[in-house]
Amino acid sequence: MESLKVAGIRLGTTCAGIKYPNRRDLVVIEAAAGTRAAAVFTRNAFCAAPVIVARTHLAAASPRYLVINTGNANAGTGRHGLVDAEASCRSLAERVGCRTEEVLPFSTGVIGEPLPLFRLVAGLPAALAALRADGWTEAAHGIMTTDTRPKWASRRLHLADREVTVTGIAKGAGMIRPDMATLLAFIATDAAVDEPVLQSVLTEAVADSFNAITVDGDTSTNDSCLLLATGQSGANVPAQGEDYARFAGAVREVCSDLAQAIIRDGEGATKFITVQIEGGRDAAECRQVAYTIAHSPLVKTAFFASDPNWGRILAAVGRAGLADLEIDRVALHLDEVCIVQNGGRALDYTEEQGQQVMARPEITIRVELGRGAAAARIWTTDLSFDYVRINAEYRT
Amino acid sequence: MESLKVAGIRLGTTCAGIKYPNRRDLVVIEAAAGTRAAAVFTRNAFCAAPVIVARTHLAAASPRYLVINTGNANAGTGRHGLVDAEASCRSLAERVGCRTEEVLPFSTGVIGEPLPLFRLVAGLPAALAALRADGWTEAAHGIMTTDTRPKWASRRLHLADREVTVTGIAKGAGMIRPDMATLLAFIATDAAVDEPVLQSVLTEAVADSFNAITVDGDTSTNDSCLLLATGQSGANVPAQGEDYARFAGAVREVCSDLAQAIIRDGEGATKFITVQIEGGRDAAECRQVAYTIAHSPLVKTAFFASDPNWGRILAAVGRAGLADLEIDRVALHLDEVCIVQNGGRALDYTEEQGQQVMARPEITIRVELGRGAAAARIWTTDLSFDYVRINAEYRT
Fold it and tell me: Which residue, A326, A332, A343, A290, is CA-closest to A310?
């Protein structure tokens, strides 16, 4: 699917040599005057300098420009890191003639090394010169690190007889267990949306998309997700009702597409695994069980091996920390195959059925807890040789 | 170091063909009449049938015999599993002429397959015929699964002019994040110890040894640790005082040796990593940070690669969930090298220093949180290609 243009948004990408030569690593996104913004950020206590600066700037003004670099996370860089993030905004602001607070910085890459500020600033003129409305795909390339594929998603809908577009790009393949949003997702729409409404649309969309995925359980220091609304379609999104629901649905779908794309491109991933927990007392305990399964190296390596070693899934459920879990009520399905019923192997389950399911590239693990009506669903990857290779060979 | 005999304890090992032919997989341990026992078991809700049966039997009688099989965990096996575990005890009891409750069953191996009860029972005569006081080393072999080395430890001490011995064996290499004790550790002493005292000695010893290690964060369904006291040395251990402390110290050292041996033999392990957290508000939050670091696949793969990628350690500290962590007060050392001070890179740290430390086979990660006086220490492994290979190729 192509990435659809959003009226009022232009994107420019260039090679600034932040870490490697001849690699697209600097992206500027321009939003028309009057654009509203909503954002969610990492909850990692060691959040990166650009996260701190972006939060401060967002509180002071509506953003006109985003400046995004890869190759360096500007995290764990102390006070100097804050100065560097602020300086990159100020340089851009001077160049285009806006306020520093109207520029938001985003960084991704290696943690703990000083940001090469000079190279970033030197790259700004080329990025600005490259600004164009159909720059989404190239920008999706420009924000990649260990990603093997660019990730974008678009939806078009009609609101009050006007055509509205929602387009987003994202990056992320490792250090993925977003606690807010995954490392860098930028979504824009030409709908007109008030900020509180925009924030509630984004928060809801993120909950079941970026906040429901995990590759390795490692919450990044730089996770940021931004939703811009330029208003240039002339279509207004109300605070509730059918048009709100349809717009929120489109944003949710774009976030969901991007989150799934991140999992499909997860470091070393060979399988796309949906973990669906049902019958819990509340959503929190369902998520707890889901993440315990999704983070178990033994479960993940069994999926890599296409081995229906369901005992490992059961062991993960058992250690998830649920008080008074009655194991007699637990059931386990892999796709349509019922493996465990009443806490033990289902009578008609055969190893052949399990092997057949495990050979698939996309598999759903469904666990029924039998103690309530709540449910939760997350997406994750397997754990392969390539995950180890990627993270042992490269300093990302 | 050799494994020292314990008066009143005999061990017999045989090949019963539980899962593979010609592999030592059945061990019987005999304890003299009058032996007292203390035990700790897994807290996994899906605890295995033998764990349930062992708990029930321990509550009813002092154990005279332990029957231990590898190749099958008898976990996730429902009501049939309980019958099988009970039947293996009853068969042994009949053969030797004791009560069924005086026999404790232990199993380790694949989860979810029915215990081959017939083969286990058929192997009992050979195991009983092999009983001998110096059977510790062979028993340590007999309880191995994916372990590459047998694990035993001994201490000798004098109590009230009498010589007392403490000897233990353990197995475990994967599914290691004991929540009580690691999968199968059997320790015996010829000291005379009342059961409440024995239990307190064991509980204390386990807290800083088996309960302070992790390979992959996967708490097993079968973890069991048993401490037997035959009393045959004639030396009595009081409920407190110097002799208590010396005896407890010896048990702690044996547990610590065994726990460290498990980590050194951890699946695919190439490094022995100590995670030491200091300056926390309480021990619980220190452990929380320690386990977050120890379970991070990104930290573990960086250690495998001998890459001083300390940003990954910082990111793990930041996502450990400590309320109001002031990152300005956080410091990080790898062995003697200070890498992070006041939340940022230490001024005189050089990449060469980091690389030098990371090349070592044993490394201590020390994190200072700067918010209290509590501390915690755990041991863990790195994450290597071999971890993935072992768990993808074999159904253990």
Answer: A332
Please name which of B385, B157, B381 lies closest in space to residue B261, comparing C-alpha atoms: B381
| Rounded Cα–Cα distance for residues A302 and A313 (Å) | 10
Phi and psi for B111 in degrees, rounded to 5? Answer: -90, 140
| Distance of alpha carbon A231 from alpha carbon A292, whole angstroms | 42
Q: Which CATH superfamily is domain A9-264 in?
A: L-amino peptidase D-ALA esterase/amidase (3.60.70.12)
Task: Select from B170, B34, B53, B36 the least CA-distant residue to B104.
Answer: B53
pTM: 0.77
Residues B250-295 pLDDT 10s: 998 888 888 888 888 888 889 999 999 999 999 999 999 999 999 8
Strands (E), A218-361: 224-229, 236-237, 272-280, 331-334, 337-341, 344-345
SS3 A65: strand
Rounded to two decimals, the ipTM of the complex is 0.72
The verdict on whether B182 is a catalytic residue reads yes
Rounded Cα distance between B187 and B252, Å, is 11
Chain-centroid distance of CA B86 in Å reads 24
For residue range A3-57, list pLDDT tens digits in order: 889 999 999 999 999 999 999 999 999 999 999 999 888 877 788 899 999 999 9
A130 vs A27: CA distance, rounded Å? 9
Nearest-10 Cα torsion for A167, A171, A172, A178 = -50
Strand, coil or helix: what is B240? coil
- Give residue for tokens 């995004």: A68
Q: Which residues of B touch A312 (CB under 8 A)?
A: 111, 175, 218
When CB atoms are compared, the residue of B111, B174, B322 closest to A314 is: B111
Query: What tokens were used for B200?
Result: 């307190």
- Say yes or no for a CB contact (<8 Å) between B343 and A316: no
- Cβ contact A221–B322 (<8 Å): no
Beta-carbon contacts of residue B366 (< 8 Å; ≥ 6 apart) = B276, B277, B278, B332, B333, B334
For A299, A375, A377, the CA distances from A322, given in Å and listed in that order, are 19, 14, 17
Which 201-220 residues of chain B touch chain A by CB within 8 A? 216-220
Q: Decide if A45 and B325 are in contact by the 8 Å CB cutoff.
A: yes
Enclosing H/E stretch for A285:
helix A283-295
What would the two tokens of residue A304 be? 């890599």
Are A9-264 and A272-393 equal in CATH topology? no
Q: What is the CATH number of domain A272-393?
A: 3.10.20.340
Considering only CB atoms, A385 lies closest to which of B46, B305, B388, namely B388
Q: Which residues touch A310 (CB under 8 Å, ≥6 apart)? A: A332, A334, A339, A340, A354, B76, B112
Q: Please state the domain extents for chain A.
A: 9-264, 272-393
**Phi-psi bin for A222: left (phi > 0), alpha (psi -120 to 50), beta?**
alpha
Q: What is the number of other CB atoms lying within 10 angstroms of the CB of residue B181? A: 30
Suggest the residue from B223, B299, B388 to mutate for an interface test with chain A (most A CBs closer than 10 A).
B388
- Which residues of chain B neighbour A385 with C-beta distances below 8 Å? 385, 388-389
User: Residues B36-47, buried b or exposed e (16+ Cβ, 10 A)?
Assistant: bbbbbbbebbbb
Give the H/E segment covering residue B26: strand B26-31
Instruction: List phi, psi (to 5°) of A313.
Output: -65, -45
Distance CA B65, CA B191 (A): 18
Residue B231 pLDDT > 70: yes
